[in-house]
């Protein structure tokens, strides 16, 4: 009876246990606890967090979302206590695992287990590849640095859609385009990928890389919505950093800072994110907060070159050269590996501070790290150039080294040519400038330096061609002036005068125009082209009326055109500058006297006589001076005028005019008539010709009057004789 009672109690006890286990199993309780009591609270986490530190999760009940992969048969019952007789194995991916990345399939977790006789096993048996599930389980152990987890409960059908291989393949293509830096094509491919049905997690991952592609392609506005959507689902530091960067690049700095500050609170130890927000503050102009985040990034990874470079750049941009130099020196001493980039940056600071010898020393150190950098060679060359002429040989050597590295360099060739030009090394200048002009054919400053270099070397033909081309490109002015000079050197006087004339009438500086007008006028006068000389001579005179040369040229041009009144006026206005240059003063007095005589001015006979005397004394054999002297003597009724004028009468109309005037004044009509009978008529100005004709008419009248008088006298004499 006692035995029967004991058996009844045992059966009852076992029944209660079985019922309790069934209920607990149905409610998702821990099957490893026979009493149905959960030992610890369930921790909501992710598979990535568990995998990062599995030891800290051992013995804990966890809940996380993952993606089903396949059934697995990986057991180690001796080490973990999990054997294949009691458990079924399978593998999953964490939701942050980007399945369209290369190698993602190999990064699953194959150490997930479920009891064969549980409802969780039944649910898992119905799953398909890529399906998203939520699981509750206990982290039993870790092995091969991965957590071994026994699943107690599975929640399926979280999403109505499931990934397919075609969609993943298209996304994988987009990612490969990113790796090839074909960002525009990648963005289009990933946009097309998003047309497939995805679960929320995978859609966020595709959106993330689609936004990144737009960001790197420079299409910032297009990048923002994709990165915004991605971050709302993924909430990782990388996505947040890209999102903030896109906002900064799109000019939405305040929004970027607000966004990234929130992200930094979630991920304070993310280096890239710290640098991104530092850059945002830099754009905003908040140097203090910018440097604070940059320093925080440096504290996260001491010796990080990118942090040092960024801090230095911010300080340089804020014109705090001393602090920037300190940062770069710190970087040089603490950074791991090569420090050439810091020496390069230090060199830039010294260059900006005009400490050129320090700058080229730093650049030379950096060159050990970057021996084939054309940019660095150019920095070295410019430092040597600015350091002074004694360093220019080294400057030229580094310019040429840069050209060897990169034959497509264009602008630096102009710098080299300019340096040689300033140093008056004209052959080297022409070589460099020709190389530059092969790429920049019609660059005006280069053509000017090339033309002047040819000119300085006496290569006037080449200089003329250069300045003629430049004149066609850049209009009249500087080029026309130099063209005139080189044509003059080639003795092409009329072409030179024409070029100088174009320069004189160009819109340029007054001194420049004056010089051109003076040269043009002188050349035209030399060629006896008074009609062309007159406009430029008058221009030169209007620009500088107190200049002896301009006064003479203006007077000669007017005199040559028969405008004696204007010539006399110009020379009269310039009397006060006669003593500025002795020889020019004599010429001015000579032409003043000549025009006064032509015009018949006698009111200033004393000045006229003095002027003529001085001219004759200075130029006793000059035909013009002799003419003025003889003419003045004739006007003074001095017989000696005949001896002075006689040699000039044959070829000089003014000498005839003076002689006829003298003879008419002495009533020596026969002598006057003898001169007038000379058939040939020398060339002369219109006014002189007019004066000559007036004198001839007067002579004819005088002769007629004399003849009539003689006839009367003859009649009277005859009448007296008859009487």
Short note summarizing the structure:
With 723 residues, the protein is of the alpha/beta class.
Overall description:
This protein is an alpha/beta fold. Among the domains are: 1-38; 43-155, OB fold (Dihydrolipoamide Acetyltransferase, E2P), CATH 2.40.50; 459-529; 545-707, Alpha Horseshoe (Serine Threonine Protein Phosphatase 5, Tetratricopeptide repeat), CATH 1.25.40. It contains 35 helices and six strands. A five-stranded mixed barrel has the order 2-3-4-6-5. The radius of gyration is 53 Å and the shape is rod-shaped.
Main traits of this protein?
single chain; rod-shaped; disordered N terminus; OB fold (Dihydrolipoamide Acetyltransferase, E2P); 5-stranded mixed beta barrel; 6 strands; alpha/beta; 723 residues
Present the secondary structure layout.
Elements: H1 2-26, E1 43-44, H2 47-52, E2 61-72, H3 77-80, E3 87-94, E4 109-115, H4 119-125, E5 132-143, E6 146-155, H5 165-179, H6 183-193, H7 200-216, H8 220-234, H9 237-249, H10 253-266, H11 271-284, H12 287-300, H13 305-317, H14 321-334, H15 340-352, H16 356-367, H17 374-387, H18 392-405, H19 411-422, H20 426-439, H21 444-456, H22 460-474, H23 478-489, H24 493-504, H25 510-526, H26 530-543, H27 548-560, H28 564-573, H29 582-599, H30 605-618, H31 623-635, H32 641-645, H33 653-665, H34 669-676, H35 686-722
Parallel strand pairs: 1-2, 4-6
Antiparallel strand pairs: 2-3, 2-5, 3-4, 5-6
């Amino acid at each position: 009876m006692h035995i029967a009672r004991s058996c009844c109690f045992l059966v009852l006890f076992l029944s209660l246990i079985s019922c309790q286990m069934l209920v607990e199993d149905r409610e998702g309780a821990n099957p490893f606890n026979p009493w149905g009591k959960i030992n610890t609270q369930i921790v909501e986490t992710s598979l990535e967090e568990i995998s990062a530190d599995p030891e800290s999760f051992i013995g804990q009940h966890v809940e996380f979302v993952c993606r089903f992969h396949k059934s697995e048969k990986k057991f180690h019952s001796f080490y973990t206590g999990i054997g294949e007789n009691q458990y079924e194995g399978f593998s999953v991916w964490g939701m942050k695992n980007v399945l369209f990345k290369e190698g993602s399939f190999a990064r699953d977790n194959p150490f997930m287990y479920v009891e064969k006789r549980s409802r969780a096993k039944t649910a898992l048996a119905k799953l398909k590849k890529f399906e998203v599930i939520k699981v509750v389980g206990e982290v039993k152990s870790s092995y091969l640095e991965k957590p071994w987890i026994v699943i107690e409960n599975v929640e399926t059908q979280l999403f109505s859609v499931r990934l397919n291989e075609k969609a993943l393949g298209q996304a994988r293509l987009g990612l490969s385009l990113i790796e090839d830096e074909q960002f525009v094509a990648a963005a289009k491919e990933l946009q097309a990928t998003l047309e497939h049905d995805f679960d929320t997690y995978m859609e966020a991952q595709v959106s993330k890389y689609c936004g990144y592609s737009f960001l790197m392609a420079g299409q910032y506005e297009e990048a923002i919505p994709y990165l915004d959507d991605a971050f709302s689902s993924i909430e990782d530091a990388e996505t947040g950093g890209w999102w903030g960067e896109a906002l900064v690049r799109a000019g939405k700095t305040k929004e970027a800072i607000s966004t990234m500050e929130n992200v930094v609170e979630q991920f304070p130890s993310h280096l890239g994110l710290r640098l991104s927000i530092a850059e945002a503050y830099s754009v905003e102009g908040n140097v203090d907060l910018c440097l604070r985040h940059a320093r925080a990034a440096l504290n996260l990874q001491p010796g990080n070159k990118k942090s040092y470079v960024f801090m230095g750049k911010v300080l340089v941009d804020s014109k705090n050269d001393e602090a920037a130099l300190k940062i770069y020196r710190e970087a040089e001493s603490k950074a791991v590996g090569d420090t050439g980039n810091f020496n390069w940056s230090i060199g830039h600071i010294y260059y900006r501070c005009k400490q050129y010898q320090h700058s080229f020393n730093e650049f030379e150190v950096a060159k050990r790290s970057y021996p084939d950098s054309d940019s660095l060679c150019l920095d070295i060359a410019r430092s040597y150039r600015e350091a002074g002429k004694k360093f220019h040989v080294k400057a030229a050597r580094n310019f040429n080294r840069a050209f060897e590295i990169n034959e497509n360099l264009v602008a630096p060739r102009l710098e080299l040519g300019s340096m040689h030009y300033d140093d008056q090394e004209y052959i080297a200048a022409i070589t460099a400038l020709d190389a530059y002009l092969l790429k920049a054919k019609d660059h005006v400053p280069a053509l000017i330096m090339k033309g002047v270099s040819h000119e300085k070397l006496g290569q006037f033909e080449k200089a003329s061609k250069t300045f003629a081309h430049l004149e066609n490109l850049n209009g009249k002015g500087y080029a026309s002036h130099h063209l005139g000079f080189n044509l003059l050197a080639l003795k092409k006087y009329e072409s030179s005068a024409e070029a100088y004339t174009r320069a004189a009438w160009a819109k340029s500086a007054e001194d420049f125009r004056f010089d051109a007008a003076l040269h043009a006028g002188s050349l035209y006068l030399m060629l006896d082209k008074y009609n062309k000389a007159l406009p430029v001579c008058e221009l030169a005179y209007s620009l500088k009326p107190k200049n002896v040369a301009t006064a003479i040229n203006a007077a000669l041009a007017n005199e040559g055109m028969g405008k004696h009144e204007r010539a006399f006026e110009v020379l009269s206005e310039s009397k006060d500058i006669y003593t500025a240059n002795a020889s020019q003063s004599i010429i001015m007095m000579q032409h003043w006297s000549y025009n006064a005589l032509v015009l018949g001015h006698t009111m200033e006979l004393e000045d006229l006589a003095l002027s003529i005397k001085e001219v004759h004394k200075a130029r006793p054999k000059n035909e013009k001076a002799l003419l003025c002297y003889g003419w003045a003597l004739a006007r003074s009724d001095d017989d000696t005028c005949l001896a002075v004028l006689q040699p000039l009468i044959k070829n000089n109309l003014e000498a005839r005019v003076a002689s006829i005037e003298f003879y008419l004044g002495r009533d020596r009509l026969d002598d006057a008539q003898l001169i007038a009978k000379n058939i040939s008529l020398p060339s002369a100005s219109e006014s002189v010709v007019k004066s000559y004709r007036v004198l001839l008419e007067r002579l004819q009248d005088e002769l007629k009057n004399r003849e009539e008088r003689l006839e009367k006298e003859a009649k009277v004499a005859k009448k007296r004789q008859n009487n």
